Amino acid sequence: MTDARGRLARHIVDLPKSGIREFFDIVSTRRGVISLAIGEPDFDTPWHIREASIASLEEGCSHYTGNAGLPALRQAIAAYVRERFGGAYDPAHEVLVTVGASEGLDVTLRALLNPGDEVLYHEPCFVSYGPEIAMAHGVPVAVETHAEDNFRLSVEALEAKVSPRTKALVVNFPNNPTGAVLGREDVEAIADFAIRHDLILISDEIYAELTWGGRRHVSFASVPALRDRLVLLHGYSKAWAMTGFRMAYVCAPAWLMDTILKIHQYAIMCASTPSQYAALEAMRQPAEDMAPMLRAYEMRRNFLRAAFAEAGIPMHNPAGAFYAFPQIARFGLSAREFAVRLLDAENVAVVPGTAFGACGEGFVRCSYATGMEQLKEAAARIARFVKTL
Ligand code: PMP
Q1: Which of 21, 121, 282, 302 is surrounded by the fewest CB atoms within 10 Å?
Q2: What distance in angstroms lies between residue 233's CA and the mean position of ligand 1's atoms?
Q3: Residue 303, class by beta-carbon neighbours within 10 Å (0-12 exposed, 13-18 middle, 19+ buried)?
Q4: pLDDT, tens digit, for every residue of 195-214?
Q5: What is the value of pTM for the model shown?
Q6: Alpha-carbon distance 291 to 46, whole Å?
């Protein structure tokens, strides 16, 4: 095809390729790699959840559900969000079952943005935020967070980037890739900022259940003053180890959900029916299902903190999610060079911090959604590697 570029959507063609993908392409050419690069649980979904999905198919549930999802699932979600997040949502009009939090973010941004609207988000962050905002014709505006601050999002940093064109703010705590969490004071200060500047707050709380050292997640849904301007994204991928089911949900006030639902209805119809039955089963005994996984993550996180300290690799306190974000700047290599040379020398894959935004330079992301034995071996190899630098 001549002039292929001219025929394509300019705002998509101009998007950069994902920095993680480029690195995974290198990793995939090698054998025997211990990978700390993966952003999904190493656990399989609890069996009774898989079984419920199989049973739904055996019973003939191979048809569409209503656009917004099974009523029983939306009721269970509303109950969970009320109890766990402190937010009250009407399951009939304010809860939407989506194909992962990824779809939830996409439909929310598309419902909100007109071309040129600015959206604030903080970096380092999940690789999709900037591109998702751009794909919805918005203008991504990154706000930096820093290790010295434990990667908390400060109102001063937000104030420096907000403008009359700012429409929304995307936040993610517990954070991928830094493991940062927010306390009640931070949450209230950010909520106050959003209200003062009349912004929609989109809070991706997909790691809500994964907090360590006795910390408990504070949800933006627990701030009553945000009720009419908050979009809560949460789902089953992380805490229930259900990435392949592609199950998540959006909670939003009815005025906004109406428009979000319109996009979901035309683009998706409804989330996968057998996956929705799995999610419904996942709501039956969440604490029991999660407990062994959470125990394992916390042990691994404690192990990694100690191992990096012993190896002389500085790290802030990762209090949530399943990522450590050690600082490697002192070894005189860029994040990418560090990751490539570590892979070359010791066959251990980590992700350069720059994959999550420019201010991730000087850091690498190590996922501890990896078995303890592999983690121990990887830590020993990393310690050996940094001694050579
Ligand atoms: N948000 C964050 C912060 C994530 O880390 C991920 C997955 N890596 C997602 C959203 C996407 O999750 P889902 O599987 O629900 O689409």
Answers
A1: 21
A2: 10
A3: middle
A4: 999 999 999 999 999 999 99
A5: 0.97
A6: 11
